[in-house]
Protein 1
Amino acid sequence: MKKALGFLAGLGLLALAAGAARTAFLGWGGGHADVGFWWTVIASFLAIAALGALVGTAIHSRKTG
């Protein structure tokens, strides 16, 4: 159960990162460099958190022995 919740949290964070990246793309495309930049920063942090959740879940849910 913990494994499923960990992967679900990672996928949820990836979805949030994709939404932030989309907003950043729209900001850059609309000529709003400040909006594009800061949403890119947010998307990057969310992607790092998502990868940490996915890799951490994979590592800590392995069977030992």
Protein 2
Amino acid sequence: MNVGNFPNGSPQLHGEAIRTQEMITQALCALAQTAPHDGTAVRATQALTSVQRIIDEIVVHISQPNTLSETAAQELKEFITDLQQKTQVIQTSAGV
């Protein structure tokens, strides 16, 4: 789902898309955390690559004018920062 491509979509639609992507990134991080223990480091790397793509999409979405309130944009920036820290920890601990 590429939230950056919603043409003049409603703020509610944008918000729902972002929340969906947040849930997807949480699931992908969980997969990346467990995959190396299951002997599938490649899967962990793929999951972390997908997480980074979603982060990039959210950053594009945040940068679009008038699509989010300042509060929502700030919350997303904090979410991205937390997510980036989480992925770094996963990469370090999993050796990916």
Protein 3
Amino acid sequence: MNPVDLLVEIIAENTPETIWTGSPLEPYRSLGNTNRGEIGEEFIRRYLEGFGVGVVKGSRTARTDLFVEGRKFEIKTASLGSNNTFQFNHVRLDRDYLYLLCLGICPHEIVFNMWRKGQVAEGDAGTLVRMAEG
């Protein structure tokens, strides 16, 4: 008896099916949060460039993710949870951006919405939850 095969069998027996089972975008769920964010930014950059929109990517340490036609964008990416909602982490008002673009990865589609930074501050984009003071 191979112990790894046995453990794989037991894991399979105890792993519930999710909305992601068999999805073409299922591999996205296995990525770390940093990789998910980078993939979201790169997707937006390439997608817009495919339509002739001018996009410049900020550096990894830049306070702005993308410049779209010269406008500063903060990009946040999240996958659809089992409760049918998205949780976009680290949305901050102290970053230098004009627009927040939230990219939602679903099992079989990609959705998005965007808001001006002022709308984010006023709660129009949803509720910001403080993860830590300061």
